[in-house]
Amino acid sequence: MANLSVNFCDVKFENPTVLASGILGVTASNLRNVIRNGAGGVTTKSIWLKEHVGHKKPTMFGTKEWFLNAVGLSDAGIEKAKDETFPEYLKDKPAPIIANIVESSMEGFAELTEKIDACNPDIIELNLGCPNVEDEHGKPFSCVAADAEKVTKMCRERTKKPLIIKLSPNVSDIAEVAKACASSGADGFCAINTLYGMAIDITVRKPILTNKSGGLSGPGIKPSAVKAVYDIYKATRLPIVATGGITSGEDAIEIMMAGGRLVGMGTMVYYRGVEGFGEVVKEMDEWCDKNGVKNIEDIIGAAHN
Ligand SMILES: Cc1cc2nc3c(=O)[nH]c(=O)nc-3n(C[C@H](O)[C@H](O)[C@H](O)COP(=O)(O)O)c2cc1C
User: Fold this and answer.
1) What distance in Å separates the CA atoms of residue 235 and residue 41, rounded to the nearest whole number?
2) Among 42, 155, 247, 290, which is most exposed with the fewest C-beta within 10 angstroms?
3) Which residue has the higher pLDDT, 55 or 280?
4) Mean per-residue pLDDT of the chain
5) Residues with catalytic roles
6) Ligand 1 centroid distance, CA of 33 (Å)
């Protein structure tokens, strides 16, 4: 058996797989269930300062190759996370927890960083890249390097915990945005959030989702994710939660070779169920055995050599 444990910003994960934000991550018991099924860590759904109502249904539509969602970042707000999710998850903590937060203003992000720090997660992730709430909240901050740099700096001043930035792939140069965040104190990244997408029902001649457009995820986006992770790693060498279209052990190995240190999986759950985490870990282990890899950390960024 290979050693699959990974150190990410001085936090130890038993294996590199992590639940991506927004999928199953609502209650502490959901999060614990993901760990029971083999994940090395979990990310919470995006948490806001106040309760946030999402979009009207239908908010999701999937095929074998890809998945569209416009859930709209619905959430009960930080107070509920502080009183319920974190205390319940942290007693006998089964594995590291990444707290993903979102706000529509930079001041809101900074205030929320301080509040989430007090909840004591292992890592704080700023969701600067959700594409499907633009009508309400404007362009995501990670679509403009100067904005990403500014909000990272404001949040950096409010926490000493590892601070990672979740980036949007909907930019022409993701490495430039990553470098801007690194210059203002980011410890690492999560990439990628969803791409822009739309599906039209040709019988009624209308978009399928009520929100019209949504975020594209699932197997079809893997090459975009691999390229984004490759570019961010090359530009910064900082640790990355490599996310986007990963559904198998071989996918996970591939994106780690691009530069991923952890591997986020969200839509995988729709295809393989929550048991998919343990299965992917087993597949990674089998690949390592077959290929003489003793420590999974040895393959991180291997495609750059
Ligand atoms: C239903 C759904 C809800 C999501 N909600 C969030 C969210 O609340 N915050 C966030 O940062 N990303 C969210 N995402 C994006 C995922 O965390 C991930 O970055 C993206 O789906 C690509 O990974 P995947 O192909 O493994 O799903 C969501 C994705 C899906 C499919």
Assistant:
1) 26
2) 290
3) 280
4) 95
5) 130
6) 18
Distance CA 146, CA 158 (A): 19
Supply the pTM of this predicted model. Answer: 0.97
What integer pLDDT is reported at residue 283 of this predicted model?
Answer: 98
- Nearest to 77, CA basis, from 116, 32, 31, 121: 116
**What are the beta bridge partners of residue 126?**
101, 165
Minimal CA–CA distance to 117: which of 64, 170, 69, 157? 157
What confidence tens digit (pLDDT) does each residue in 54-82 have? Answer: 889 999 999 999 999 998 888 889 999 99
What is the 8-class DSSP label of residue 55?
P
59 CB within 6 A, ligand 1 = no
Amino acid letter for position 188: G
- 131, 158 contact by CB (below 8 A): no
Alpha-carbon distance of 174 to 145, in angstroms, equals: 9
Task: Please tell me the distance between residue 305's alpha carbon and the centre of ligand 1 in angstroms.
Answer: 30
Q: What percent of the chain has pLDDT over 90?
A: 90
Superfamily of domain 6-55+73-196+221-304: Aldolase class I (3.20.20.70)
In testing the pocket of ligand 1, which one of 31, 65, 71 has its CB within 8 Å of the most ligand atoms?
A: 71
- Collapsed DSSP state (helix, strand, coil) of residue 161: coil
Domain boundaries, given as residue ranges, for the chain: 6-55+73-196+221-304
In the block, tokens 């999060």 appear at: 31
